[in-house]
Amino acid sequence: MARVVVDVMLKPEILDPQGQAIARKLPQLGFAGVSAVRQGKRFEVELDGPADEAALDQVRTIAETLLANPVVESYEVRVL
């Protein structure tokens, strides 16, 4: 059994209002030195078998089909 992580983030050219709101609030909470925040999503996918290339290709297809909107989001698949 293997666990794969899919991190989904807005593409850099897409405005991230939630990330901007967090970045604006940080100085008020006493956190200095943060110039920007980007908000994203993390998915953990447990596989029945090993995380071989075929399984990772299937997870990439899942990410493209269901987990991410490829128009505005990018994703990264990695094995834990």
UniProtKB/TrEMBL annotation:
Keywords: ATP-binding, Cytoplasm, Ligase, Nucleotide-binding, Purine biosynthesis. It is found in: Cytoplasm. GO terms for molecular function: ATP binding; phosphoribosylformylglycinamidine synthase activity. Coiled coil: none annotated. Its main location: cytoplasm. It catalyses: N(2)-formyl-N(1)-(5-phospho-beta-D-ribosyl)glycinamide + L-glutamine + ATP + H2O = 2-formamido-N(1)-(5-O-phospho-beta-D-ribosyl)acetamidine + L-glutamate + ADP + phosphate + H(+). Pathway: Purine metabolism; IMP biosynthesis via de novo pathway; 5-amino-1-(5-phospho-D-ribosyl)imidazole from N(2)-formyl-N(1)-(5-phospho-D-ribosyl)glycinamide: step 1/2. Pfam families: PurS. One of its GO terms (biological process) is 'de novo' IMP biosynthetic process. GO terms for cellular component: cytoplasm. It is an enzyme of class 6 (ligase). It comes from the Bacteria. InterPro entries: PurS (IPR003850), PurS-like_sf (IPR036604). Part of the phosphoribosylformylglycinamidine synthase complex involved in the purines biosynthetic pathway. Catalyzes the ATP-dependent conversion of formylglycinamide ribonucleotide (FGAR) and glutamine to yield formylglycinamidine ribonucleotide (FGAM) and glutamate. The FGAM synthase complex is composed of three subunits. PurQ produces an ammonia molecule by converting glutamine to glutamate. PurL transfers the ammonia molecule to FGAR to form FGAM in an ATP-dependent manner. NCBIfam families: phosphoribosylformylglycinamidine synthase subunit PurS (TIGR00302), PRK05974.1 (NF004630). HAMAP family: PurS (MF_01926). Part of the FGAM synthase complex composed of 1 PurL, 1 PurQ and 2 PurS subunits. Belongs to the PurS family. This is Phosphoribosylformylglycinamidine synthase subunit PurS.
